Amino acid sequence: MSQMLDVEPPSPPTGYFRARAARLGALLRQGHTPEKIALSVALGITLGLFPIFGTTTLLCVAAAAALRLNHPAIQITNQLMYPIQIPLILVFIRIGESMLGVAPIPFSATLMVAELRAHPTVLMERFGTAGLRGILGWAMVAPVVVGLTYVSLLPVLRVASRRPATPEAATIANR
Question: Is residue 8 domain-resident?
Fold first, then answer.
């Protein structure tokens, strides 16, 4: 006969989350200046909003490698942008359409399914054009997003980099 015991999983040790946060902080700061970290975050946010879904990770890898930026910082902020990226795709398309002075492309699931069945190549052409218009809209907004994010983060990161790390955080980060 075996008895089933009601056993709770052990709770995380005291300071567990603080230790994880200290490790993440150390990873994000590793060998980079506040300026590089601010630029990493600013580009991660901006590239994370790029209107072609599925391309942002590669764009961030390329930017981080080319500019010698902090890979974890740029990728974390890129991933955080996904919930915002999806609704902004249509906004960027509309911005591109208004800049070009063309009529807006209608986005209706019913129409798209009907067109996919009747003329798949026309549908692909229309969405290719919409993607290019979205890239144009994003390109107009991107420099503003990078600039505002960088200028907003830099003073905070400079102050944070001057603060001495607590002995506990330094011990944890060196593990």
Answer: no
- The Cα 120–Cα 75 span in angstroms is 35
- Secondary structure class of 171 (helix, strand, coil): helix
- Output the pTM of the full model: 0.73
Tens-level pLDDT at each residue, the chain (175 residues): 555 555 565 555 557 767 766 665 665 566 678 899 999 999 999 999 999 988 999 999 999 999 999 999 999 999 999 999 999 999 999 999 999 999 998 877 787 788 878 888 887 888 889 999 999 999 999 999 999 999 999 999 888 877 665 555 555 555 5
Residue range of the domain that includes 101: 19-173
3-state secondary structure of 67: helix
Sign of CA dihedral 63, 69, 36, 152: positive
| Backbone φ and ψ of 165, nearest 5° | -70, 145
By the 10 Å C-beta count (0-12 exposed, 13-18 middle, 19+ buried), 144 is classed as exposed
Domain membership flag for residue 10: no
